[in-house]
C-alpha cells in the first residue's frame, strides 16, 4: 500500500505540487491525469524519491520512503520514467536483466534461477523475447519502451510507478502493455500508479483517478466520479462530451471543436431512396445521426448508407449479423458506414412518404409482412414465420438525444395503431396484433437546420412522425395482403 499525505514540493523553492493526499491499496491501479504543467510528473518523481518533498510524507508498506536504503527501496518500488537514458548499448536481455539488480546480495552476487525466470517472464509478457539479442539502440522508440517496461516488471517490486507508459506505442501495444499491468495488479496484488495523457485509456484501465490542476488535486475517485464534463472542461479548458464506452461501463470523453462547424443544409427527400427487388437503399450525401434496432450496426452512430434487404421466406442462419455483414461486403457497401435490416416482404411494395414541412420534410419508409403478427400484451412461445415490419424515419433537422428516443416511441405507437386499424390479428391468440416478432425501427437525422428538442405526439415533429408512420404502415399492410392474395391464388405463397 502507498499512502501520501499533504505532499508539497517542486524546484528551487517553488512548489509545483501542493498538499496532495491519496492512498492506493495493493491490487489497485491509480491513474494521474491533468493538463501539461499540472504537476503529474513532478508528483511521480516525489513518490519515487527522485525529488525530495518540501513537506508532507510518502509511506510504502507503512514506512516512510526516507527510511529505506536505495537497494531496499528498489525492491519495493519499480519506476518507469518518461524518458529513458540509453547512452550505453545493451541487448534487450541485458537491459531487462538490470531490473534484477535490487535482488542481488553479497559481494559476489550470482545469477539465480529465480532471476532468469523473472527476466524471461517479463520479456514474454511484453512480447520482446524474439528481440533477446538485439541492441536497443537499433530499436524503434515503441520497441524500446516495451523493453524498459519489461525491465520494471522483472524487478518484481510490489509498487510500480509509470510516467506515460504508452508513449511511442501503437494501439495494439498500448493494449498489450495495459492489459499486462492490469493483470499484474489483479492477479499478483501489484500497486500501480501511472501518469496518463490519454483520459480514455486511463478510464478503461484504472480503478481510481487523480485529476490534477496547477499542482493541486482537482478530483479523486472512480472514473465515473472524475470523468465529468464540467470537471474536464474546467481543468483542461477544452470542450468535451462525456459518455459511456459502448462495450464496458467506463466513461469516455470526446473532444469537441471550440466552435461547432456550420454544416451546409442538406435535405433528404423520398426521391433519394432507391427501390429494387433486392433491397431498398438510401445513400445520404452527409452522415446521419442514427439510432436503430437494425440487424447490422444496431444502436447509435453516424451513417451514410441505409439498406433494407430482401431475403427468402425460408431464410435461416445461426448468426444474422455476421451473415448480413458478409452480404454487405460482397455487395460492395462500406461496412463502417452502413446500417442494414432485412425483410421477407417484397421490397418493391415499400411505402415511402414525406410529411411535415414541405421544405424540410420527415421521410418515412415502411415495408410490411405480417405473417408472424404478434399481440405483445399476450406473450407466448410461438414459431417465427415470414414477415417483418421495417420502419425508417429520416428527419431533416437537428434532434436532441431525447427527441431521438421519443421519435422511436411515437413511431412504435403509430405502427400499433395501423395494425389495429387494418385489423391484423395474432394468429395464436386471435387478438389485434401490435407488430411482428422481428420488427426493426430506425430514426435518422441530418443534424442541420431546425432544432427539435422533443418528438412526442403533441409536438410538430411527433405529429409528422406519427401520421407518416401510421399511413405508410397501413398502406404497406394493404399491399402485403394484395400480393399475398395473388400469390395464394397462383399457388406460389409459402
Number of strands: 24
Low-confidence stretches: none
Beta-strand percentage range: 25-35%
| C-alpha termini separation | 70 Å
- Secondary-structure-derived class: alpha/beta
Average pLDDT level: 91
Report Rg. 31 Å
Number of helices: 12
- Describe the biggest sheet? 8 strands, mixed
Question: What is the approximate shape?
Answer: elongated
Q: Provide the helix percentage.
A: 25-40%
Describe the structure.
By secondary structure, the chain is an alpha/beta fold. It has 12 helices and 24 strands. Strands 13, 14, 15, 16, 17, 18, 20 and 23 form an 8-stranded mixed β-sheet that branches. A 6-stranded mixed β-sheet has the order 6-7-8-3-9-10, with helices on both faces. A 4-stranded antiparallel β-sheet has the order 2-1-4-5, covered by helices on one side. Helix 4 (113-125) runs antiparallel to helix 5 and helix 11 (401-421) crosses helix 12 (460-489).
Summarize the structure.
The protein is an alpha/beta fold. The protein has helices spanning 40-47, 70-76, 92-97, 113-125, 141-154, 171-188, 199-205, 223-226, 229-236, 320-331, 401-421, 460-489, and strands spanning 2-11, 14-24, 29-33, 55-60, 63-64, 77-80, 159-163, 191-195, 208-213, 216-221, 240-244, 251-255, 273-275, 279-292, 299-310, 338-343, 351-355, 362-368, 373-374, 389-395, 398-399, 435-436, 440-445, 451-452.
